Amino acid sequence: MSSTRGALVVVGSGPGIGSHVARTFSAHAFKRIILLSRDPSRLEKDAEFIRSATPSADISTLPIDLSKTSDIPAALAAVDKALGNTPLEVVLFNAARVGPSTLVEWPMEELELDLRIKVTGCYAVAQWAIPKLLQVKDNLKPAFLCTSGSIYKDPLPEVFSLSVCKAGQHNLVHSMHKKYKDEGVYCALVVVGGVVADENPECNAGNIANKTWNLYEQRDDHEVEIIDQ
Ligand SMILES: NC(=O)c1ccc[n+]([C@@H]2O[C@H](COP(=O)([O-])OP(=O)(O)OC[C@H]3O[C@@H](n4cnc5c(N)ncnc54)[C@H](OP(=O)(O)O)[C@@H]3O)[C@@H](O)[C@H]2O)c1
Asked: Out of the domains of life, which is the source (predicted)?
């Protein structure tokens, strides 16, 4: 096992879970980090947040809009270019459009858009990532991690569109866990069972990031669930 880490790629970085997970991994020697989302100026703030804890972190920020399925390969080709000779070691798929969706007023097109971001988007990133992760299984600890929510199994009608997507996404990553666990790539889900807020003892972004790190290190299940009692 190499003492040098490969790269962490966060797809759907933001001020909450995305940048907190990147900061936690940077503190565990993941110095090469690539952050993706739609807003380049916001991504720079995420990068500064990580550098404030790990000044030596080498961070790139790149645009991706997962709702535009046909644009995803070009966005991931830009990640390949940014990676250069650094092997990909961990992917966090974290992007989501979060908000209310009223049964049965929610337009079909909006449900399709949500599915594109969270299910097709996750699959597209997995198609890109898994072959690279398999290549480094003998000397790194490759993983594909995905942020989920307890609504994947206990849906909330007022956010039914997000719930449907989380169910599909969970099923996809669980399949990936079953297929790749014996092939050396760990695929798993971080299941957040409540609204993320600083005041929550469990469901705060820092604690979720620590739980994500523990999941990555221990690799003993396909998910960890984080809930405030
Ligand atoms: N926050 C909660 O209360 C909560 C609860 C349970 C589960 N979760 C899950 O946690 C994950 C997000 O964590 P977070 O809420 O703390 O957010 P976050 O990590 O702060 O940011 C997530 C980022 O996803 C990006 N994104 C949204 N749509 C996108 C698109 N079409 N293409 C690319 N990127 C996109 C957004 O950036 P841009 O707008 O710049 O693209 C956003 O900043 C999601 O999987 C969510 O379902 C959140």
From this structure: Eukaryota
